[in-house]
Amino acid sequence: QVQLVESGGGLVQPGGSLRLSCAASGSISSSNVMGWYRQAPGKQRELVAVLGSNGGTNYADSVKGRFTVSRDSAKNTVYLQMNSLKPEDTAVYYCNRRDYIATTRHWLDSWGQGTQVTVSS
Predict the structure, then answer these.
(1) Helices H, strands E: what count in the chain?
(2) What is the spatial distance between Cα 111 and Cα 85, in angstroms, rounded to a whole number?
(3) Tens place of pLDDT per residue across the chain (121 aa)
(4) Euclidean distance between CA atoms 42 and 34, whole angstroms
(5) CA 106/CA 109 separation, integer angstroms
(6) Is the four-CA dihedral 59, 60, 65, 66 of positive or negative sign?
(7) Are strands 115-119 and 10-12 parallel, antiparallel or unpaired?
(8) Neighbours of 4 (CB within 10 A)
């Protein structure tokens, strides 16, 4: 079981910046992917940015060049630096961690509780 604790959401004006953090604890695998998804009202949850333990990244087209995902492996923490924020970035942001379970050969998904990001003047 993996626990994820998020922090860093809030209200920011268009063009501003925010940094989200997510710390993982519990039974974790060295083969994993950590990152962020978001869900706006009336919309499906979508991938924002993820970073694998091998260093590979994947970003949504809408955030490329504005958001940066990074991690501190020693702290089992993933960050999302969000710059040049737009009103359409308003959503609940969820931390996700995907651990590879070698004994059963499957991936185990864990989710944080979500943190609200509101971009508005």
Answers:
(1) 0, 11
(2) 24
(3) 789 999 999 999 999 999 999 999 886 788 889 999 999 999 999 999 999 988 899 999 999 999 999 999 888 899 999 999 999 999 999 999 999 989 999 999 999 999 999 999 9
(4) 25
(5) 10
(6) negative
(7) parallel
(8) 21
Adjacency order of strands within the sheet including 67-72? 2-7, 18-26, 77-82, 67-72
CA distance 114 to 96: 10
Place of tokens 């990001």: 117
Q: What are the phi and psi torsion angles at 88 (to 5°)? A: -70, -5
In three-state secondary structure terms, 72 is strand
Kindly write down the DSSP assignment for every residue of 22-57, as one continuous string. Answer: EEEEES--SSEEEEEEEE-TTS--EEEEEEETTS-E
> What's the one-letter identity of residue 49?
A
